[in-house]
Amino acid sequence: MTPAARLSAAIDILDRVLAGNSAEQALTNWGRASRFAGSGDRLAVRDLVFAAIRCRRSFAALGGAETGRGLVLGGLRDAGVDPGPLFTGQGHAPPPLTEADSLPPTELPDLVALDCPDWLAPPLRAALGADFAPVMAALRARASVFLRVNSARISREGAIAALASEGIAAQPHGLSSFALEVTENARKIQSSQTYLTGLVELQDAASQAVVQALPLRSGQRVLDYCAGGGGKTLAMAAAGGLQLFAHDANPRRMRDLPARAERAGVRLRLLETADLPRHAPFDLVLTDVPCSGSGSWRRAPEAKWALTPARLAELCRIQAGILDRVAPLVAPGGHLAYATCSMLQAENSAQIAAFLARSPGWLLQSSRLFTPLDGGDGFFVAILRRNP
Ligand SMILES: C[S@@+](CC[C@H](N)C(=O)[O-])C[C@H]1O[C@@H](n2cnc3c(N)ncnc32)[C@H](O)[C@@H]1O
Asked: What is the fold, at CATH topology level, of the domain defined by 145-202?
């Protein structure tokens, strides 16, 4: 495909996304119908689509319309590329520019330029203070690819060498002593032997830092209450010597976890909700709760535009319910770790303050907010201790 034909493909896919399809679904449908597209074309079109969703507000302003065409046009202008030579209408190129593709305003309002929904600006400013603008700007770009070195099997230096022998460049990242940032050939990872034999896992660096903040000790009984695909479960397992249990309200989300655990060479047990009281108490319960995902809008940018005040309030109710349900599962003197991939206070510090206010016998031991300025996704973790 020519660069202009890739733009046309992105325009069609974005029109479907704007009509309500998910980006993944629209990309899959386009891929099935476009056998002529090679792997390089597919990756390039995917990048165009996700960049346009991340920067939907500013690209629409720069392109003159919130349409597939407007977003792609705005993306080119944002990158300082003259769209004229690409929008020619020849071959599979988008139709030529017209009066309707009006020139962009010379200066965009701040929240438009930062791709921030208006209603989210006050709570994000409250949470981020002086970091508000830099964080929102960082969320306009693609996230780095990070790996977690399976320290039970290989050292960080050994993993870097193993990846290098397969043409993948990676370097240590400061957020966690097991984190690597991939600097070249990230797209080769999932077919590499280093990954397939369980020496490394794909996991955001801040997600790894959250696990490193947990007070894990050998011999403990540990429950990952919202295990999902098990990213944090496996990272905890790497600490070694734990009796590890995984649970999720939607057990199908854990369907790949046994195979991933086997590949990583770790043992864990999946628990149904009804079995939890029988296996309690636990020395540590991690609740990596469902949240707005405001810290991971680089990876899942549709969520930024889909979030509403009503959905945020609903998520806060779910989070409070989870805290209340898991608290009795923690042994006296044990810990409850609460984590979100959100930067909003309502889901983080305010949620913890409300729990402490209604739950005698608990105290806050530590908490930390990570933002994309630390390198990884935005995350929050609070460690609570139950009185002995
Ligand atoms: C943020 S994801 C977990 C991600 C996972 N810990 C990881 O690191 O890969 C949140 C998970 O919570 C689960 N969940 C939602 N409501 C829940 C509830 N009431 N109780 C337990 N899990 C719940 C969801 O199914 C989802 O898998």
From this structure: Alpha-Beta Plaits (3.30.70)
